[in-house]
Design brief:
It is a single chain. The protein has a four-stranded parallel beta sheet. The two termini are about 35 Å apart. Helix 7 links the parallel strand 5 and strand 6. By secondary structure, it is α/β, with parallel strands linked by helices.
Amino acid sequence: MNVDIHQSWKPYLEPEFNKPYFKTLVEFVKQEYNTHKCFPKGSEIFNAFNHCHFGDVKVVIIGQDPYHGIGQANGLCFSVNEGIAHPPSLINIFKEIEQDLGVTYPKSGNLEPWADQGVLLLNATLTVRAHQAGSHQNKGWEQFTDAVIKLISDNRNNVVFLLWGGFAKKKKKLVDTEKHFVLETGHPSPLSANRGYWFGNKHFSKTNSLLEQVGQSAIEWKLQ
């Protein structure tokens, strides 16, 4: 695994790259990619950072694992490649945007346009073995992505953190809520959404309202 990450992140993340746990993680990921089918493809592992540069971060959305089906994962949480059927959680995200903002449901499930506007779409674990959810958990990725969240909290101001579901809500402890905004709701998965914990959260309009309050431009959530 090459740590192919945008230079804007390097001054902040170089100390992590040099820690023993990260070197062990790199060896693990290399071995997994050499011996099993894993996702996303190697060049997309750090896609979240390469599309959303450090100084541009306005919003952080935290996912758990990359999608583990063929052709789905592209290194951005909840996002899928062009032409791939939308997974259930993504469908519910788009339905909420439709209700919240009155925009049409998009054809593409690729969330790169969000990332390019300053939405860091960060999975807690950045790789996974094909068809084996959670297979790369507890190998060091969580330590790394927790460090990323803390670095953003410490070095930036007025970032909106969207914490969806129990797993993401645990990351609140890494965020300085005196200088950032935190919006919490249920996970968009059908299990949670169908029990009334997702729809109607209005996180997308609320995020834009918060950004505009601090003089930032709103996110264009509508996709084609």
